[in-house]
From TrEMBL:
Keyword Ion transport recorded: no
The entry's keywords: Hydrolase, Magnesium
Cofactor(s) this protein cannot do without: Mg(2+)
InterPro entries, per the entry: NUDIX_hydrolase-like_dom_sf (IPR015797), NUDIX_hydrolase_CS (IPR020084), NUDIX_hydrolase_dom (IPR000086)
Protein's recorded name: NUDIX domain-containing protein
Domain Nudix hydrolase as annotated: residue spans: 2-154
PROSITE patterns: NUDIX (PS51462), NUDIX_BOX (PS00893)
UniProt GO MF annotations: hydrolase activity
Domain of life: Bacteria
Amino acid sequence: MSAKIPRGAAVVVEAGKVLVVKRYLRQGASAECVMCEYGDVPGPRCDGHRYAVLPGGHVEAGESAAGAALRELEEETTLTGAVDRLLWTGTHNGRPAYYFLISDVDGVPELSGDEAVEHSATNHFELRWADAADLEEFGIYPAALRQHLTRLIEAGDDAG
């Protein structure tokens, strides 16, 4: 059995809000849908999922999780920045996940990369600034992040 590819994620906090990617995903069959698989959705059909994630993605060969977080942040949002520190570790769809606070953020967030190209009626992406209440409403995923992000927002930690 091969090791699961880790995920690096960028935590960008500004003015009491965190940048998230709101998503709607629907596949034809639940067997084709990663959210059905990890959400234990029964049945043959995928009815669709509305949720939000932090900008991030898989760690490429020879890349660190921090490097992946910065690369994915730029690819998905056009923002650049620097890693301030590792905030948390966890899992995302059954693979290791590393969450980094990003500082010295430059630019205006704009949906880009695959998230902009793959926009469709069954695969929709939207960048949003979320406060603590929004995290629940948007369905932050993985759900364990909500508590961590809420504490970070309430502490006013935006890494400058």
